[in-house]
């Protein structure tokens, strides 16, 4: 199992941008998404296995967004306890896309190996993403 924390405000995967290079149209990541993925990759390299995982994987992401400044004391307490959760954009799946893309070739060969994905979005005074990746035993999938 590989576990680590990416401190700081999480950034979701932005919509791809299009541009022209000569006569060709190219697609690229928005600047903020690209920089965040580089940041996640930098941290992941410190926890990477010697050889990236090759088999099926289970990934658990806990996404902690910054508590909005306009929050009441009552709501802040509910956010910290995890009772009240963010139901605002960006969507949870856009965060997961950015993180999984960043881990390609570092923690695992390709994000297509992720067969189980669990993602939760919370508020916190300490924004971060907690990442847990576990190799799945192929025998666990066989029916007996």
The tally of beta strands, per DSSP, is 6
Shape designation: globular
Q: Specify the helix fraction band.
A: 25-40%
The quaternary structure here is single chain
Write up what this structure looks like.
With 144 residues, the protein is α+β, with helices and mostly antiparallel strands. The chain has one domain: 60s Ribosomal Protein L30, Chain: A, CATH 3.30.1330. The model has no long low-confidence stretch (mean pLDDT 91). Helix 1 crosses helix 3 (92-103). The chain has helices at 31-45, 73-81, 92-103, and strands at 2-7, 17-21, 24-28, 57-66, 114-124, 128-135. Strand 2 (17-21) and strand 3 (24-28) form a beta hairpin. It has a four-stranded mixed β-sheet with strand order 1-6-4-5, covered by helices on one side. The protein is globular and about 50 Å long. The chain has three helices and six strands; from the N terminus they run βββαβααββ.
């Amino acid at each position: 199992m590989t576990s680590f924390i990416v401190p700081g405000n999480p950034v979701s995967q932005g919509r791809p941008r299009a541009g022209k290079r000569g006569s060709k149209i190219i697609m690229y990541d928005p600047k903020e998404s690209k920089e965040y993925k580089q940041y996640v990759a930098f941290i992941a390299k410190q926890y990477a296995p010697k050889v990236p995982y090759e088999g099926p994987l289970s990934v658990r992401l806990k996404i902690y967004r910054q508590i909005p400044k306009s929050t009441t004391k009552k709501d802040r307490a509910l956010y910290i306890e995890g009772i009240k959760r963010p139901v605002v954009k960006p969507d949870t799946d856009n965060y997961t896309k950015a993180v999984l893309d960043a881990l390609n070739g570092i923690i695992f060969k390709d994000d297509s190996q992720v067969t189980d994905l669990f993602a939760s979005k919370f508020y916190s005074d300490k924004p971060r993403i907690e990442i847990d990746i576990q190799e799945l035993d192929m025998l666990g999938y066989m029916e007996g």
